[in-house]
């Protein structure tokens, strides 16, 4: 990585330190270490010179020199001859970026522990079985009318495209059926966009933290992620920093920017209306297409969210907004039907490249999806009630069992994003696996090894399973093996 941060940008992120001459070198080092742990400062960033930072902070150069010295000693900074000082992670901080989709056999369950692994690595609920079976039976009944043709619909079945367009229009994003392409899930929609718009070596702007599948897509395209750290307000709630977003657009000229504005995975945050307008305006100013991942949008648990981010870009043209969605979160991941909504010209370009890929989505599944969309509002009522109860149950258990952890109550989505207060996520996840609990560690949600202080804990399971999971997590947290090497006595 070749990112660098200026003295004034670092001071802005340090928040509140500037001008405070009581700030000692230890506090400064501590703040920088925390920023590395929670992802606000990426690993592999070139930090300002001692003189520049001292000037920006309004402290003596000796304070910065001592802080940098301490951070070098602890392994959080490294000098490279001739090219300055860079952020790093100490060798003792083990990183875990393994995909949660790795086969479950990849981790070991100790023989004397309870059988039955609990999967909290995926934030995806089980299917509403009755509705799935009913929609499949309805689909089988209409299938014969489709069997007379070849079955290849590059952009999807017209009836499904119309149903998706209707739903998006009702949400506040006026959409015609020919602005919709049916895909094999939201991840497939995103992959199609990346394939059409991103070349090797291009940059792609991502939120930090973000959905791991998005980071994987960028890497597989041999492109370079540009992480833009999410911010927190005074009350600790996650928010988007428009200034950082616009600066990253200007400075790195990415091929596209990917955002999850509604029930962001993993934080659960929702972008406010003013920020939506500013983000779309900045993307248009810099000519950068936005990929808006709305697959968690319908999963509000307290109150409905406002219009989709795409609604702020009603005028198609340069800097298109491409909205992706799917039935994976609202109904079931196993349906494998999603969509891409965007300007017709962009869809045509993407369809051309798809013609040499999987060609089209399966007809039967599209018919099932059409039936599920017709039932979706009823299904969502049930799902929201179940998920809100599970969220509150897990939140209460976490507050009770882990008082040292910090967590906000998400207004939607499927998971808690927990600040462990120490860089122990990977070690905890490794240990939890031995207790039969499968989790995804914080660094999986960022780039450069960030978020070692964080853990995503989904509440998608019934409460008795969540209780069992919390017991296993408590056993893992209390185990000396869950301490990173170098912290505490590990025998
Ligand atoms: C934000 C986000 N985008 C995309 C996906 C993948 O969705 P799909 O199963 O529709 O491909 C997920 C699944 O976890 C997700 O959380």
UniProtKB/TrEMBL annotation:
The keyword DNA-binding applies. Coiled coil: none annotated. GO terms for molecular function: transaminase activity. Keywords: Aminotransferase, DNA-binding, Pyridoxal phosphate, Transcription, Transcription regulation, Transferase. It holds the Pfam family GntR. It comes from the Bacteria. InterPro entries: Aminotransferase_I/II_large (IPR004839), HTH_trans_reg/aminotransferase (IPR051446), PyrdxlP-dep_Trfase (IPR015424), PyrdxlP-dep_Trfase_major (IPR015421), Tscrpt_reg_HTH_GntR (IPR000524), WH-like_DNA-bd_sf (IPR036388), WH_DNA-bd_sf (IPR036390). Residues 22-90 form the HTH gntR-type domain. The keyword Transcription applies. SMART domains: HTH_GNTR (SM00345). In the C-terminal section; belongs to the class-I pyridoxal-phosphate-dependent aminotransferase family. This is PLP-dependent aminotransferase family protein.
